[in-house]
Design brief:
Distance between the termini of chain A: 27 Å
Number of strands of chain A: 9
Strand order of the largest sheet of chain B: 2-1-4-3
Number of helices of chain A: 3
Number of strands of chain B: 4
Shape of chain B: globular
Order of helices and strands of chain B: EEHHEE
Distance between the termini of chain B: 40 Å
Oligomer: heterodimer
Order of helices and strands of chain A: EHEEEHEEEHEE
Chain lengths: 157, 91
């Protein structure tokens, strides 16, 4: 098993993710791509700025990935990469890649990692709108994280 | 006295200078009390802070972990660096 957890400021390249997940022992590769969309709650979005605490975010990614390995199989390979900085509509903000022997554990592990990432990782979004306004989005409080982990969210990216 | 630098993230960046707030507290002050001192420091900032619910929903952390409210700070040091983490929304 292995885990790759990164916060990056440059675009995430698909070929690098695929290469990271490639190995003869794996019969399944599943990659979730989270992208900046052009609308949120009726407002036209031009861009999103991602503010990140890099050290804590990468530590949280590793913890979540390790939990996925414990739950779904120590043989899994998990890749978690998140962008920081201002991203235009259509740019990739987050990648969760899972390689495994079979598809079932890959689907389960991928879903676990992205849902936990959204509720536990020290990352914040500021949306920039077509009318020139901008707004920091409301999120999940980390109060209680010092004693334990938050439950998975059902929110979609 | 213990000097504390608190880095601002997310919605806190619109207050003070947008990156960091510095203040002093007695050695052995709890994390919970430091949060109150942070609120006072933000209210004194150039961009005055008026969002107590945001502060109440936030946590203080060092570079390794989120700090428990009851934890005592400043044992054996005169200056520490923390971060205030508002509710998160990555992805």
């Amino acid at each position: 098993m292995t885990v790759l957890a990164r916060v990056v400021s440059e675009p995430i390249r698909a070929e690098l993710v695929a290469a990271e997940l490639s190995s003869p022992q794996y019969g399944a590769q599943l990659v979730f791509w989270g992208l900046v969309r052009d609308e949120n709650e009726g407002k036209r979005v031009h861009a999103v700025s991602y503010d990140v605490h890099p050290a804590l975010a990468e530590k949280t990614f590793r913890e979540i990935a390790e939990e996925a390995l414990e739950r779904y199989g120590r043989q899994l390979h998990v890749v978690v990469i998140h962008r920081a900085g201002r991203l235009a509509v259509g740019e990739v903000s987050v990648v969760v890649g899972v390689a495994s022997g079979h598809r079932d554990e890959a689907y389960q592990a991928s879903r676990y990692v992205i849902e936990q990432l959204k509720t536990r990782s020290p990352i914040w979004k500021q949306e920039h709108y077509a009318d020139g306004d901008s707004e920091w989005l409301l999120g999940h409080s980390l109060r209680g994280e010092a004693q334990g982990h938050a439950t998975a969210a059902s929110e979609k990216p | 006295m213990l000097r504390i630098d608190v880095r601002l993230f997310g919605a806190f960046r619109k207050y003070s200078n947008g990156s960091e707030v510095t203040f002093e507290v007695p050695h052995g002050t709890t994390v919970s009390a430091v949060r109150k001192h942070l609120g006072d420091a933000l209210r004194r900032g150039a961009a005055a802070f008026a969002d107590q619910p945001l502060l109440d929903a936030s946590v203080l952390a060092d570079d390794n972990e989120i700090l428990d409210d009851a934890q005592l700070l400043g044992c054996g040091v005169d200056r520490i660096s923390l971060a205030i983490l508002p509710p998160v929304c990555g992805g």
